[in-house]
Amino acid sequence: MAILRSVTISESSRPGDAPPFAAVPELLSAMLKVRGVALEAEARHADSLDSLPLETRQSGINLVHYITIRQLDLRREQRSLARLGLSSLGRAEPHVLATIDAVIARLAAEVPHARLPDDLGRRGPSADEASRLLEEHTLASLGPRVGDRNTRLMVTLPTEAAHDSGLVDRFISSGMSIARINTAHDDLECWRRMIGNVRRAADAAGQDVRVAIDLPGPKLRTGPLPPGVEVMRARPARDELGRVERPVRIRFAVDPASEQLVQVPRGDLATVPVNSEGFDAIEPGDELMFRDARGRRRRLTVLHRGPLTCDAESDKSIYFSPGLPVSVCRDGKTIRTMEVGRLPSVASSIVLRAGEILQLRRGTSEGGAAVRAADGSVEQPAHVSIEVGELFGSVQPGERIMLDDGSIEGVVTGVDSDRIDLEIVRPSQRKLRAGQGVNLPDTELPIPGLTDDDLAIVEALAADGDLVAMSFVSSSQDVVELHELLAGLNVNDVGVVLKVERKAAMDRLPDLLWTLLRRPSSALMVARGDLAVEVGFDWLAELQEEILWFGASAHTPVILATQVLESLAKQGAPTRAEVTDAAWASRAECVMLNKGPFIPDALRFLDGLLTRMEVRRERRTPMLRELSSSFPWAQPDRW
After folding, report:
1. Which pLDDT tens digit goes with each residue over 574-592?
2. DSSP letters spanning 78-134
3. Cα four-point dihedral sign 357, 361, 367, 372
4. Which of the pair, 638 or 432, is modelled with greater confidence?
5. CB neighbourhood size of 424 (10 A)
6. Cβ-proximal residues to 226 (8 Å cutoff; 6+ apart), any chain
7. For residue 479, what are the contacts with CB-CB under 8 A and spacing of at least 6?
8. Beta pairing, strands 325-330 & 333-339
């Protein structure tokens, strides 16, 4: 699209100055000028607007009007309008010109012989039409409302949803209206089972439950590290005074392939593989004696014996390692000796310290910790690989790179074709594991928005879903490619969700929204996890407000995601801050919950909270300062 020009409406006060108030004639003149600027922008974009589908054309017109007035600093006029008891434009985003025209008409009634435009009140969507458009677009993409609640509830399905249809039944009966399938995990067979369970459960409940296919996208991750130590720790559950509340049960298994070999919580069942030699002689009541991996003496009594397993309990912590000998004793004598088999490796890590260098190397080789001299100084820096080669030709010295969801921050000090030197700046010390996310808020990477994995997933699943969510979008061309892919698959009724989780997406939000309007069934997702890492936590609150406002201006539904009621979903009780956050989320058309054992409880909690908030909610009036200082797209030469 062509640029939108910034126009000075009046001598606005600088932030911090006492705001002067405009007289009514001056206000009327200013509002007429604002109206003219908005209509001039609409005329410049007439050809582009005509190319939009009829279902979204009025939304495109209003989006142009909204972007135009957001390039103006209208705070002085807003304060003056509020002083007169008129609309201060702070809630005008869905119907910009209709609101401006209503204000002009009211001001003109106080100004003798005021000259008004002939088309006053007849341009752009009215308030009623804007509400209708948002409702239609939300219905098309997110499905019908549930009961008295306008805000839809989306749930990320866990792996268990592929095998436990009753779990999906409970989600739907608790209020889920959209099932999200995160294709960054599990596999095609698992995803298809999930979709089948959702369809069957929705039909049984007589509800329209949508399925969203969330693509993994081009997320950068740290490469492998050397395997960690093979060890299994088994611990009883203890109270605050250290007293045993629940012993840990040890299952010694000859055929561990049929058992689950994982690190277990305190007091749960721990499965330890052993060789078959001597196992047949074990009987209930026998004692198992050994020194664990730390050399601690341990004595367990066999409680139960099966064909290939025997169970024993312990009220002490035990560390098992491969090759550890276990003596089978009866009547004080050793009758057999078994040996512990292979165990799952504990994930290894490398320690990073502020002020030291971490080398990012091209490829998939194993990383390694820093090599230190006897005095603790670094002889060779720590290193980790990154597979995406485009990174090494794009990053520049001085740019930031964030690791492990932003918990580690570094600044690039040197770059060549196969290596990046990253100086760690925070925290003072932290461990980095393999497979952790890498964010580059200052770098433009020339990588496609749709990866080969994304393309394969869309081709396999798009026809079975209702929505496709695109991850880590950087430009409008990414959205165009997804639109063309869906059109080529002849799945034109499948909606598109654009996930705003990169700084580049936030910088180009108007262009992305404009492109999104080419498909009537669309939505925005505020993916607050990666977005907070990219833009900084101090900016997140303001930017999620902006996404909501821009979504409203394009009559496009917004999904709020990441850590909504996370403590309730995972631990069974919310924090006070989470309740406040969830109440604020009622401003979005949809709220997404992630995985957790208490998801049905979280759904019921949200259902009641959001229903009450929709009755009571009244948004405060935002002040429309000029955004050129914070948002690159708001500068006249950028949009």
Report:
1. 999 999 999 988 889 999 9
2. HHHHHHTTS--STT-TTSHHHHHHHHHHHHHTTSTT----TTTT-SS--HHHHHHHH
3. negative
4. 432
5. 23
6. 348, 366, 367, 368
7. 449, 470, 473, 496, 498, 512, 515, 516
8. antiparallel
